[in-house]
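Minutes, structural biology subgroup

Action item carried over from last meeting: produce the C-alpha cell record for C40 family peptidase (Caldicellulosiruptor morganii). EB confirmed the sequence was re-checked against the source entry. Recorded below for completeness.
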Amino acid sequence: MNFKALFATLLLALFLSTGTTVFAKTAQATATINIRSSPSTSAKIVGVFPKGFKAQVISTSGEWTKISYDGVVGYVKTDYIMITNDNSKANSKKALSTSDQVFYQTAVVLKDNARLRSDKSTSSKIVKTLSKGSKVYVLSREQNGWIKVKTSDGVIGYMAYYLLKINGASSSKTVSRGGYDREDKINYNGSLADRIIGFAKNFLGIRYRYGGSSPSTGFDCSGFVQYVFRNFGIHLERTAADMAASNGVRISPDELRPGDLVFFDTDGGRNYINHVGIYIGNGMYIHASSARRCVTISDLTSKYGTSFMMAKRVIR
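Output recorded by EB:
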C-alpha cells in the first residue's frame, strides 16, 4: 500500500471513530418546476419536479441545483426548492422533542380508524389507528400521496392525503410560458373529490407521453388518471377501456359531479373507449391530451365532448 492510500485509510478510520455523520441533502419543491439537462433555462426539459415532492440533491452551484428525482437526473432552479439535511436519528429525536406547534403544520384526521403506517405503502405495518378529529403534526409531504406525521403521543408514521385535513395547506401558482416555474392554486382541505382535483391540477402542463405514468417523464390519459387516484389509495386499471369496464359505478351524464371519470372514443367511431379524464365541475374535465401534448383542462362540449361515451363514479 502506498503512502497516499495508507493516509486515506487512516483518515477514514479516524473519521469513523469520532462518530461524525455526513448528512445527505434532500430537496423539496416549493413549486412545480422543470428538470433540465443542464443548468440553463434554454436546456432540454428532461422531467418535472412536482410541488411538495422530494428529491436527492447531487450538487448545488449558484442558482442551479442538480437533483435525482424519480429516476431522472437533471438541474432545477434553486429558488424553487427547499434544501435540508437528512439528520441523524439522534438529532431527529431531539428536534421532535421540542415544541411541535412551533415547527410543524397541524392536520386533523377525517375518518375514524384512520391508519398510521410504518412506511409509505398500504401493505406496510399499521402502527396506530386514529379517531376522526384527532390532531397530528405534519413532518413532511412524501411522494405518491403520503404524509409523514407525528401523533400527539409521539408516534411517527405515514398517512394517506385523503385521511387528513391539513391546516393552511393552500398556495397559488402562475404557469409561465414553456413550462412550470411557479405554483398553482391548490386546496387540500375540502372533500376527497376536492383534494383529488387539487392534486391533479399540480400536473397541468406536464407533457403528454404515450405509455407514460409518471410526472417526471410524462403521462398518457389513463396513466395520469391512475397516478392521481393511486395517491389517494384508489386503485384503477391501467387503460381507459379497462377502467371503463372494471372500475366504479356507471352514471348518467346529468349525474356528473367532481371526481367522476369521463370516457371517450376519440377516433369518432363511438364503438371503443380510448380516452379518460377526471370531471372537475362546471362542464370541465382535466386530462392528459395527446392533441395538446400536455395535461390540460377541456370543456365537455369541445372536440372531445362530441366523442363522449360514458361516465363512472369511483369515489364512494
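Discussion: The two ends are 68 Å apart (CA to CA).
Next step: EB to file the record with the rest of the batch.
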